Amino acid sequence: MRIAILQRDTAQRGNIELVLAQGGHTCMPFSDEVVLTKALAASTVDMLVLDWHGTRLSGVDVLRNVRALNGDHIPVLFASEDTSDDSVVHAFAVGADDYVSLPICPTVFRARVDALFRRAFPDRCDKVTLDVGPYHFNMRRQSVTLNGKPVVLSGTQYRLAALFFANIGRVLSRDHIYAMVWGRELHTLTRTIDSHVSRLRVLLELDDCNGFRLQPVYKSGYRLLSLHDGVETFDRKAA
Asked: What is the CATH number of domain 129-235?
């Protein structure tokens, strides 16, 4: 998962980033609230870890901006040295999903992050197989079949396909895609994503006949659209 971290204190920010990275997550660290808000206007993330007190904007202001841009489906966790009852109650009242004290306990923090992800994305966590319309994904084998026939994909193509099918209907920004598929942040313009998306459309036959459309989103990224409702089913048993 891709997580944005806002924390004024350099040491605390670094500790949070380290703990999340050890849990397999990709992090976007920020020290300034305005910079974070601007970044989220052009990018997508799966979770936010916010500082309650800011230098230019309060945690409440940042949360309100985030909700206006991304809706209520992205979990938001506050990490702060301020553990007063008033601050904690206020955070939950304005839409926070959790609130922890600094410095964090690594094991407890990871457990709370994982719990928020299970709640926010129940269809994306701990799944072994994924059946979506005519497509069958085996997460352990990293294999895909279309109408029962194997589709040969490279490792990169599989990761890209799995990312889209785990986020049906959701706009994914280019830097989000690049971070999750290629494992590093996107700092320069590149046609790599477009080339892989174009090839994936052909390999998986993503068209109206199979009920899906992979479309570009202007100035953002891509979105996989389902043309039929109720096509997603999941199975925890290995195929």
From this structure: 1.10.10.10
